[in-house]
Amino acid sequence: MLAIGIVAGVLLLIIILMYNSLVNKKNQVENSFSTIDAMLKKRYDLIPNLVNTVKAFMKHEKDLLSEITELRTKAVSGNLSDSEKIDVENRISGKMGGIMVAVENYPDLKSNSNFLQLQGAWTESEEQISAARRAYNSTVTDYNNAIQMIPTNMLASMMNYKKKDWFEIPNNERNNISAKDLFKA
After folding, report:
1. Cα separation of 61 and 142, whole Å?
2. pTM, two decimal places
């Protein structure tokens, strides 16, 4: 009788430890995602200032500036799922990269102190977002491993935990950069 009680106690302890581990990993993912949200808020606040500064100089890139403004509006609406938010953020990153490349065609803008200050703030913001993405992807990996590996996968299934998406680099940003194309006049 004592042996059955000890075995039941050990099994209960194992289940409690697995449950707590899963809840901990889920909360770490949510915490990491909220850190990214805080960084993205900083980015969203920078976008209107940057766009307005650039707009005065870049009349030809009007469509690009409009797309960035629309994406920012969509991102701050708060009506996006995690996967939609990841998609919008990847699109904003790509478009903002286009602005920074287009700026090379505007010497007055490149030397404008307001633009230089915004560009510095933008670079710092992007570096912080990149670090937050790495931390998020690490916690997602731990979480996804826990919900897919035996024996925690059985408990995760009962708790209805689903696999989380990583922040991934868009395919167009995975291509090699041609130095030859960068120096074309």
Report:
1. 42
2. 0.73
